[in-house]
Amino acid sequence: MVKPPIRAAPFRAGLARLAPGRGKLTAGFSQIRYRQHESQTLQEIANEDNDFILSILQASPSVRDSRSYLSSFAPPPPDPSSPPITEEATASTTTTASAANPEPNMLVTSLLNPIHRRPALVKIQGPFTDAQMDSICRGMAYLQRMGLVSVIVVDRDDLPSNEPSDRFEAQRQRMMVRHEVERVVAFLARHRATARPVLSTVARMADPSGESLDGKQSGKQVENGIFVEEEGLDHVRRAVAEGEIPVLLPVALDSGCRSRRISSNRVLLALASAMSTRPDPASASTSLSPTPTTRDIDLTPLRLLVINREGGIPSYARAGLPHLSINLASEYSYINRTFLPQWTETHPTALSSLRLANGCLAHMPREASALIVSHRSSAAMIANLITNKPAHSASLPHALLVESEGRITRDTPTLLRKGLPVRVLRSMEEVDQEKLTALLEKSFRRVLDREAFYERLRNDLDFVIVVGDYAGAAICTLEGKGTSTYPHNHPEPICYLDKFAVHPSHQGDGTVDFLWVALRDETYGLGLLDASNPSIGSLRGVGKGRDLVWRSRADNPVNKWYFERSSGFVRTKDGKWKVFWCDAEQRLGELWKEREFGGGRLVKVMEKEEVGRVDWWEREIGQIPSAWAA
């Protein structure tokens, strides 16, 4: 038998007051929860509130991030059909309110007092110590205060994924998992988060024949042999509607109505399918939620969180350090192929978490994401909720991310998205000119001089990288071919980034990073181990890297983003443009030498072959005609 925690007796007494089969806490547990809140001193509450606000500020959301957050969690706009507030009703309060309080900030108000609650699927992959569980539940409480209601399924890595045949051992393991549910609810209550243990089964095992004994399987979405009953989903729906965090057991009923412990991943997959499906009005009329408000709540999950002890998914390109972001549409098979045997010891659940994210996100909206995060990085959950971005952009220079102290550690989380397939096109015959034109004109908000532009591409095209159905594109050309103006008569033409465009509807969803990473792998990163680009039509990392050069208007607000990804830039003599470049990373080890002088100081010395190349780039690029109609 597993020894219960020291303070488990009153908690279990509260659980004994549960309404049979309902999974809803009664007043007895509410009093226990209140006493736990009461045990916090005012100073502890103030410190926790300050930590919460600091976590929001550290996320550093941009204007686009804030708008994205508000679109999901801000209170709905006022109903124009509602009766107007009369002058008599407001006259007595207007002067006092305006004098005491300035006009509220919508972002801050929505962060601290959200109205629109949205669910997230969460796997707490224990076992965790009390200190670790406390940190995790603090993060869950913060997310709840910001409007994201976690639907938690607990699990333990030290138990087999399926229930053993021995009855006594199976009972012991179920008690261990049930104890984990109790711990999660207790720690959530410690941080003033209302939680609801759902001790009844919400999932059922599908009959291989396609029919169940009671007919409840008919018409259900079956995921990996599991489906969620409408009655079971009502427990989740009611909790989300009331802003409570449901904490579920990884169990399911078999065809004989016996409760069986199963893998939490199977329960989460079934929940993702069921929660993303609008309820059938006929079945809703007989459910546990009689009110239309509860029945109509949107249960579609916006996030999947996997909280573990091992951190993100290790990357073959980064020598085992985690992936920052993953485009499942183009990288899923590649990550499985390049997963090294030694990582099964350090990251035993990485591939199963990858499969879980791939399966759940298939049911979730396009903007949804999954985060695989260590319990040591609970603050990353706040940042991910607000920004829906990885801890660091994957398109930043590889050396900066890996070698800079503190940038990437074993605990850096991995963000996963459905993403879009990436293709590399090397001839104009493969390019859909209509779709490419629409993308460029929508992105740049200008009219393309189509005839002249595509005529030039037919002569000078190097390749085009396309993301999805022209959601983004990078066009590279070869400039300066056949000229002898380069210093020392260098024969290689310039690899010029002519256009880099992402459709406005895909800005902020990771497409820009997926596009730039593919661009880097085909140009200045080519030839390196970490440039094994899995994109369709790519060189797969085989070849010799080339300098990538492009230019941008001097007043372009995107220049800051370009600056972070380039090796350098110069302003043209007329001051209208900035010329950026990325040095071929493979060649840097040959042409740039580090010489150590007294005191350990390292100085980079430029070789003579590098002298004058920037002037040549500027001269050749300056001759390229505008792509836009007058």
UniProtKB/TrEMBL annotation:
Keywords: Acyltransferase, Amino-acid biosynthesis, Mitochondrion, Transferase, Transit peptide. Residues 67-103 are annotated as: Disordered. One of its GO terms (biological process) is ornithine biosynthetic process. Belongs to the acetyltransferase family. Residues 84-100 have a biased composition (Low complexity). Residues 74-83 have a biased composition (Pro residues). InterPro entries: AceGlu_kinase-like_sf (IPR036393), Acyl_CoA_acyltransferase (IPR016181), GNAT_dom (IPR000182), Vertebrate-like_GNAT_dom (IPR006855). It catalyses: L-glutamate + acetyl-CoA = N-acetyl-L-glutamate + CoA + H(+). N-acetylglutamate synthase involved in arginine biosynthesis. GO terms for molecular function: L-glutamate N-acetyltransferase activity. PROSITE patterns: GNAT (PS51186), GNAT_NAGS (PS51731). Pathway: Amino-acid biosynthesis; L-arginine biosynthesis; N(2)-acetyl-L-ornithine from L-glutamate: step 1/4. Its EC number is 2.3.1.1. It comes from Kwoniella shandongensis. SUPFAM superfamilies: Acyl-CoA N-acyltransferases (Nat). The keyword Transit peptide applies. One of its GO terms (cellular component) is mitochondrial matrix. This is Amino-acid acetyltransferase, mitochondrial.
